[in-house]
Amino acid sequence: MEKGKDSGPNKKPLTEVRVRELWSRTYNREGKPDWSHILPYYHEDIVFQDSIQCIVGIDAFTALCERLTKRCKQLRMDIGSIVVDPPEIFMDWTMTMMFRRWPSSPIYGCTRLTLAEDGRIVRQRDYYDLWGDIFDGIPWFRRIYRRLMHRYFG
Predict the structure, then answer these.
(1) What are the CA-CA distances from residue 34 to residues 74, 136, 143 (Å)?
(2) Which distant-in-sequence residues (6+ apart) come within 8 Å of 51 by Cβ?
(3) First CA to last CA across the chain, in angstroms?
């Protein structure tokens, strides 16, 4: 995978259309995801955070992408709406992860991208309920988990 580099004068700005096109190419309909075309849009000091981890730097972010590729038999992302309000870009999505030994697991979430002055992504924050979406796929456990969450948090 090519690591994030200077965006340069030939790099198209991250508009709604460009974000949809890039992310649609990243998460293939069939086969493993490929981030090689999108990594140049990431700043070398990228800070990626989600409900599991916080990753700092393009090398760590690239390694994260490679680990996800190895874990999944297939990964698909269906993008809903995208809002560009520089320097922020917001999008909602449904990611379906297909593992080798487990059934498909749809995860519903959204992403906030923050652009640096040069137009590259310097911060990415993904929001999703990993365990809730996974446990919803286990019929006998779904009710127990939701009851527990309601009791303690709602």
Answers:
(1) 11, 28, 36
(2) 126, 127, 128, 129, 130
(3) 43
Taking residue 50's Cβ as centre, other Cβ atoms within 10 Å add up to 16
List the structure tokens of 123: 């911060």
Number of Cα atoms under 13 Å in the Cβ half of residue 32: 13
State whether residue 18 is helix, strand or coil: helix
Counting residues of the chain whose pLDDT is more than 70, the rounded percentage is 87
Taking the C-alpha atoms of residue 60 and residue 47, their distance in angstroms, rounded to an integer, is 9
85 CB-contact burial (10 Å; exposed 0-12 / middle 13-18 / buried 19+): exposed
pLDDT at 119: 95
Indicate the DSSP class of residue 4: P
Q: What would the mean pLDDT of 79-103 be, rounded to a whole number?
A: 87
Q: What is the mean pLDDT of residues 82-95?
A: 95
Tokens, residue 14: 């991250």
The alpha-helical segments, DSSP class H, found in the chain are 16-26, 58-71, 130-135, 139-153
Q: Which domains does the chain have, with CATH numbers?
A: 16-129 (3.10.450.50)
Which stretch of DSSP H or E encloses residue 36? none
